[in-house]
Amino acid sequence: MNPTQQKILDLTALLNRYGYEYYTLDAPTVPDAEYDRLYRELEALEAAHPEFKQPDSPTLRVGGAPLDGFESVHHEVPMLSLSNAFSPQDDSGAFDHAEMYAFDERVRGGLGGTAPEYVIEPKFDGLAVSLLYRDGVLVRAATRGDGATGEDVTENVKTIRNVPLKLHRPSESALPELIEIRGEVLMLKADFAALNRRQLEHNQKPFANPRNAAAGSLRQLDSKITAQRKLHFFAYSIAQQTGGSACGTHMQELAYAAELGFSLPEGNYGCFQNIDGVLAFYEQMHAKRPDLPFEIDGMVVKVDSLAQQETLGFVSRAPRWAIAHKFPAEEALTVVEAIDVQIGRTGAVTPVARLHPVFVGGVTVTNATLHNQDEVARKDVRVGDTVVVRRAGDVIPEVVRVVLERRPMQILEHSSSDGLQEDLFGAADSAERPSENRTVPLYPPYRLPETCPICASPIEREEGEAVARCSGGMLCEAQRAQGLIHFASRKAMDIEGLGQKQIEQLVAQDLVRHFADLYRLDIPTLQKMKENAEMPSDASTMLSTSTSAALSAGISTTLSAGTSDGQNKKMPTKWAQNILDGIEASKQPDLARFLFALGIRHVGERTAKVLAQAFGSLENVRRAPEPALACLPDIGAVVARSIAHFFAQDAQQAMIDELLAAGVSPKNQAVTLPLAQYLTPEKWLSRLPGFKISENKAAALWDLAGKNIEGLINDNALPADWQAWRKISGNLSLLTAMQQFLAQMPSESDTMSSDGLNAAVAGKTFVLTGTLPTLKRDEAQAMIEAVGGKVSGSVSKKTDYVVAGEAAGSKLEKAQTLGVAVLDEQALLDLLNK
Ligand code: IVH
């Protein structure tokens, strides 16, 4: 054989083995980089010698030319459906398996009294697909269609990584000449979530569920799109076969399919000698369902022996030897008893439907989120409505839609003056009445309240935002407790010993209102908190706070009051001292943690870090004007406005002053972002609130103003739109603030060693590769350069450090070969902060 041909054959086989280990066995044996390297090698060889390309080449998995339409495929062996059985649950969660016992009776009857063995396997919630292999090669893949005729989706199915393009040779026998494997194409829950995240990022509509996503992905005329969606295939039967080993049971068929290279739902199927074993397994799977990596809507129970299957045969379009044992519906009907709102930590107002208790997907649901005002309006959910409630996995139950036919109505009697509330009836009734047009809903459309039910502050909704918010901030008890919990949390001030429960008690008893109050706590106050918490009269106050917090987390909890433990008898105040020690130890936080702890809207850990790196000190952050904030990497207009708005509030500044007065002193840090590069006039001028211009126009304006802010403020020869903007209240003072800020702009030398360089980094050469967990590549580069390091594109002996993130490829390998030091992001940050 020609050596190139041999090389192509070897690479194809090797890559297919690695792919199988990765996608089917979930046990990769080589690093991704090695796979990628071999893959590229094969790609190049195939490009040079297309005549040697194998029918099972992994390069076929990227998709081919788009089709005009799908060809029809006739199913020689029809693809039938299954009849269903349900096992309703009672309030204790116990199942009633009567329908399954009836199935077992029917089967045994059909077998003349013989008791069969049963296989039970997941009922995958995807799409049925038939795969035809001739001489071991995948030649056709088809959807189920109407069972007799489906669509040819071969090109698309070839992109599914765990579908073998060529069957593995079974150990005992020859490959079958022809075999038709059937199974389900689906999308794993994790891949579905990632896909929807991408859809949203690209302003595209998210898919409703993994099933729809799988269907949409499989039925693409352009298989290159399918290739980008991660689909999965599980085999569940052999529909026809010539040659190869003959199977006598369904379990043997499954084992044979696995030998040929297919995935089975490992650990989630089994064979039992009687129906009771099957039912016990069903109940286990029901409990396990939320944790499975894919969606299932029940289990399928099949008679194991193929001979017995044949004896039993079919009735209309479904086998007598199998049944879909569905899980209890995760949707249920119930009535909305009230709609009220819940206030989140950031003041977000979420309308919540209080429901007549209903059992859905294994739990009793009494609340369901209505998300926001727009959602309530879209679904038109009103008090008294019968609604469909859905509980998907462990997510917060939601109202899916209203059953309008059951909306309570009233007749408006034109003749009578007292008018209202004559009658209550459903729409079905009203249709039969002559004066249909005089019936109106009993309850009006829902509207959010105008004031916060907790603190009575106005509820506000920013333009373009779906979410309305309570404007009370730390004045609002709901936000106060949650704001303090956030403040004390591990990634914020990290106050050890001060947990959610203590904070809720402190707030409920009004012992703590603001952050600074924490630093004034003493042992007597903490003791009082505990005593009150143990008194029943206070339990109810606490319950309300703790439930509101729990509700916003989408869970229901029961309050366990008090924190008494045996230790307290010996040292009655040790627990309190521990809390005080934790509080004391939190007094010198890193600047970024402190900023994050303040709970400024839109300021997460990452933004807090950028602020700290750009400004170095709390004082600088506090006085940074909005346009300066908007110039920083990763901070857009909305975030900049939110930060500026926070620090513009006297109450917030006072709160920070109080914290400082109470002894909290955030650490200053090195300014590692090159501010001068970010804060150029054209940049900040193009980011002024309410004055939308491009950076080019901003540069021209700057020139016109004589390249100084004085000119921008006073020059009356500047363009009219600028002069108009300048007249708007607050804008001149914004310019003055910018002027002052720029004059004292924190510079890299502010908080660094005298020469402004970091000795560990200065003069060193770095190469960045792969995706770092939080930093973008240009940010990492900017940070390295800011302290005197160099960033290069390729690894050589002269490279000092390779910074490797996820999916780092050949550069990392080269670094390892050359013995160059490899850093992860944290190690880089540590080095930069030296
Ligand atoms: S066997 C004649 N096994 O259920 C029996 N079907 O209602 C044919 N399904 O369209 C099907 N998981 O998509 C079988 N483990 C499983 C299944 C399964 C899901 C789907 C299949 C089919 C539908 C039949």
UniProtKB/TrEMBL annotation:
Residue numbers binding NAD(+): D32, A33, E34, Y35, D36, S81, L82, E121, R144, E184, K302, K326
Enzyme class per UniProt: ligase
PROSITE patterns named among the record's database cross-references: BRCT, DNA_LIGASE_N1, DNA_LIGASE_N2
GO cellular component: cytosol
Keyword entries, A-Z: DNA damage, DNA repair, DNA replication, Ligase, Magnesium, Manganese, Metal-binding, NAD, Zinc
Gene Ontology terms, MF aspect: DNA ligase (NAD+) activity; metal ion binding
SUPFAM superfamilies in alphabetical order: BRCT domain (SSF52113), DNA ligase/mRNA capping enzyme, catalytic domain (SSF56091), Nucleic acid-binding proteins (SSF50249), RuvA domain 2-like (SSF47781)
InterPro entries associated with the record: BRCT_dom (IPR001357), BRCT_dom_sf (IPR036420), DisA/LigA_HHH (IPR041663), DNA_ligase (IPR001679), DNA_ligase_AS (IPR018239), DNA_ligase_CS (IPR033136), DNAligase_adenylation (IPR013839), DNAligase_N (IPR013840)
Reactions catalysed: NAD(+) + (deoxyribonucleotide)n-3'-hydroxyl + 5'-phospho-(deoxyribonucleotide)m = (deoxyribonucleotide)n+m + AMP + beta-nicotinamide D-nucleotide
Cofactor(s) listed: Mg(2+); Mn(2+)
A Pfam family assignment: BRCT
GO biological process: DNA repair; DNA replication
Protein function: DNA ligase that catalyzes the formation of phosphodiester linkages between 5'-phosphoryl and 3'-hydroxyl groups in double-stranded DNA using NAD as a coenzyme and as the energy source for the reaction. It is essential for DNA replication and repair of damaged DNA.
Family: Belongs to the NAD-dependent DNA ligase family. LigA subfamily.
Name this protein carries in UniProt: DNA ligase
Gene: ligA
